[in-house]
Structures are given as C-alpha cells and as structure tokens.
Amino acid sequence: MAHKGQTFKHYPESLKVEAIRLHAEEGWSYRKITEHLEIHDKDRVRKWMRKYRLEGQASFVDRRGNPCRTETMQERDLRSLRLEVDVLKKWLQILNREG
C-alpha cells in the first residue's frame, strides 16, 4: 500500500531486459546486477526474473494506462455533438411546453 506522497521508481523495458540477460546468460548475482544497474530495490531483479520465467518477453510490456481505449478524435467529437443535439432537443421541448 502506498503512503501519501510516496513515489515509485519506474524502470524502462531495456533496463529490465539487460538485468534478465545478465542473470540468465552471464550468471551475475542479483546483488551485483542491482549495484551495476543502480536499481534501488534489492529484490526487484528477482521479481523481474520470476515474472520473465512465467510470462516470457511479454512480462516487460508497460501496462499502465487504459489500453482498451481505442476511441479516435472523430468518434469523441461525434459523441460530443450528439450529446449537444440531445440537450438542445430537450431544451426545445421545454420551450414549446411553456409557449
């Protein structure tokens, strides 16, 4: 659980790949990798390695944000205009009832 004002260090995919390569191919220890690549969390490389063994190369993809959002600018504008038309139609109905 994060504390108020706490920031998290995000590492680029290239650094994660290099850390995994150093451990898998070169046989470096986790401690040596964290010192060499200046990774602050001593268990981070171990977590990346475990994730890599389970998911492969896909484990490094950054999944932050909303990947399901595929709405284009035109679709957004169209939705906004339809909403505006609906509001104007309702306003016209209200005016017609009063008059």
How are the SSEs placed, and which strands pair?
Layout lengths: L12 H12 L5 H8 L6 H12 L17 H26 L1
Helix pairs in contact: 1-2, 1-3
In short:
The protein has 99 residues and is mostly helical.
Write up this protein:
This protein is mostly helical. The chain has 2 domains: 11-61; 70-98. It is 59% helix and 0% strand. The chain has 4 helices and no strands. It has helices spanning 13-24, 30-37, 44-55, 73-98. Helix 1 (13-24) runs antiparallel to helix 2 (30-37) and helix 1 crosses helix 3. The radius of gyration is 26 Å and the shape is elongated. It comes from Paenibacillus lutrae. This is Helix-turn-helix domain-containing protein. Residues 16-67 form the Insertion element IS150 protein InsJ-like helix-turn-helix domain.
Task: Label this structure with key terms.
single chain; 99 residues; mainly alpha; 2 domains; 59% helix; 0% strand
Helix content: 55-70%
Count of distinct strands:
0
Q: Total domains, how many?
A: 2
**Estimated share of beta-strand residues:** under 5%
Report on the biggest sheet. Answer: none
The helix/strand order is HHHH
Count helical runs.
Answer: 4
Radius of gyration, taken over Cα atoms and rounded to an integer in Å: 26 Å
Class computed from helices, strands and strand pairing: mainly alpha
| Overall mean pLDDT | 87
Outline the low-pLDDT stretches: none
**Global outline:** elongated
Terminal CA distance reads 59 Å
